[in-house]
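Support request, please re-run this one:
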Amino acid sequence: MTMDYRRLGRSELQVSEIGVGGHHLRRDSGDGERIFRGTAQERAAIFSRALDCGITFFDTTFKEEVISFGEALKIMGRRDEMVLCSMDEQYAAFRSDDLKDYKKHTADELDRCLRWLGTDWIDVYWLRYDVGEHSDDMLRYSIEAMREAKEAGKIRAIGNSGHDTAFMQKTVGEWDAWDVIMFPYNFAHRRAEDYVLPAAEERDVGVVIMKPFACGRYFRVDPRTGFRDDRILPREEQSRIATAALKWILENEKVHTIIPALNELHHVDDAVAASGSPLSAEERALLDGIAAKSPSYKESYGHD
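Re-run finished. Output below.
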């Protein structure tokens, strides 16, 4: 297996076109906390396999995932081989009457992520934000905090992660606020092709794709039922779909990397098989069949 690499827009980071996601491994502990199902040793084994296969791009999201990742890093090391991302997961819920508090909140959350990961820098730091959650002024204070962190060397690129393509259109087109953006895009949900992907290309903004499997819907017997449905396809069929779905996305040169959930060792192999390999007619037909049965973008992600 070989891995191809792409330039992540104006961030100038060189990244593997396949990355590592997978924060849905979290679960409730029973006492109000969320924990990771995988142990640090299991996570370290997956990350090591990914690095050995040429994957360099690693994304983290929720607190318990970030902590788990930091514990795995203590076991395996190899931080310098990674382009590591993390997120202010609490930003969408944060509220204050003082606009300056948004700047402080963003700076404080970044420092917490750095401590949890046990690293001096994060390569891409995301604001988790969708349209309507905060005012433009609130958001600008947070962006100011991220720019100061970038100047201080705590982060290398400023990113936005969200599901709402209307918000992406505004901030990429009108504000030109981000070095990198991350949003859902796959063979059944292609709305990003209308504006977001061309706008990112025009402004040299890095593009990271999440939800390549629509939160696991495409591995269900009925993709309309969602990830809580236990009626899943056989493992061999899931592998075929995963590899084909990633190949389809990588056909678009406006995309720089994808972060599928890689929560088992064989998931890594399925994903790496997509790099540098064209989508066959048989694979395209497979995806077309699934797309015909899939729910809409809003039904899948809760946003327009």
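The first helix runs from residue 40 to 52. The radius of gyration is 18 Å.
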